[in-house]
Amino acid sequence: MGERMCPVCRKTLLSRYSGDPVCAPCARSSRGALPAVPVWLWDSPEIREALASADLPAFLLRVRSAMGLSQLELASLVGWSQSTVNRVENGERNTLYDIRELLRFADAIDMPRQVLVPLITGKSVTEYPAEGINADMDMDRRHFTGVLAGSLAAGMGWRSPIIPDRVDAAHIKQLKATIQRLYADDQRMGGGLLLSPALRQLTRVRRMLDEADFTESIGRGLLSAAGELCICAGWLAYDSGDQSHARQLFGEALLYAEHSGDERLRVNVASYLAMHAVRQARTRPGRAREALHAVAAGKDAARPWATPRVYGLLAIREATAHAVVGDEIACRKSIATAWREIERGTHEDDPDWTGFVTPTVLTYFEGLTAMTLGKPRLAVARYEHLLADASLGERNRTYYRSCLAGALLASGRRADALAEGVALLPDIGGSRRTLQELTGLREAADESSEFAYRYDRLLAA
């Protein structure tokens, strides 16, 4: 088959592997290479099924269970009593069969109204329309679905966040559950698809701090939660390739750590600031010194309480910064320190955010620092050893494979690198960070190659 020119831009040769009539950039608006952005973080087949069957007691119970809230905590969020929650869940009260109460409930837990569509259609839909629901009516269980089906009108979707007059422990618990859910979903779909809902939650928290009333202790907890959410959103921005936004969010998290007096949060922020500075040092070498300063600040904040896992994490960040400036001896010393700390095992006081600091992850950083120091063959060996671990999550495995592809290319094994690249591209999802690791491989690939075609599709999406 002969080569074809894109009929739109008349500049790009179409790959023989492409069935598209135009090139990847020209097809940007029509491609759906990535999964859809989640409508609501707590959405699930079970919640949709409960709505589709108009079983609102089950709907309420599943929402509360997903958020990890007690009846009393959910009651606090939505302005009910605990007994009301209990009776609604047991089917003894039809509170949610009043549309006004249902929409008030949705707004209170920051649920977009299109999540209620299964209640209208009787089907567990996978895509939501943009139409809305009219709240100006009363109804009972028997007539609810029929009347609701005829009440579509403008206004469904994300509304401006509803901010409570007074924040209590239940709101902080919901925020922490939201952060955990964001991290869990990140492992499935990548930061690019989750940044928007994370930023919406951050807007909510900022408004709580500015507009709501709370006690001093709740205020400190809210500041800490805001800092944790900034770190989470910063990571999602980092993973999606938005480094400027990531830097801003990590900086905001540091302010919340200082205002709350939360030393654990301060150390966590320092770790992420160091990570980000090291990445920026690829094009701005001076940022490596910034990373070392962040690590030093983290060590100072950690000294009164830190566990071996915490020191191991800071040693990893320190090693990557030393590698960027070419200090191999200091890098090896920091890697050795990290191994020594990690081999001391877990501790009951380990913060949740050190859970990823394992021998497997340290093996990855050995490969990363070897590449940075110009030793791609050593990096290949470390990455191959890492990928032999059957317990790796799929998203982490995909990222590590992209690192392996880069190391194979740098060590002169171009064909092996391209084969690895082609094989992993379908699994990238919303992680621009993983795609960026393959930039060098794209530059080395022939324009008409399968890898170039598939890479350009993802880049244009």
TrEMBL record:
SMART domains documented for this protein: HTH_XRE (SM00530)
Pfam family, one: HTH_31
MF terms in GO: DNA binding
PROSITE patterns: HTH_CROC1
Record domain HTH cro/C1-type: where: 60-116
Protein name, entry field: Transcriptional regulator with XRE-family HTH domain
InterPro entries, per the entry: Cro/C1-type_HTH, Lambda_DNA-bd_dom_sf
Matching CDD domains: HTH_XRE
Species, as recorded: Sphaerisporangium krabiense
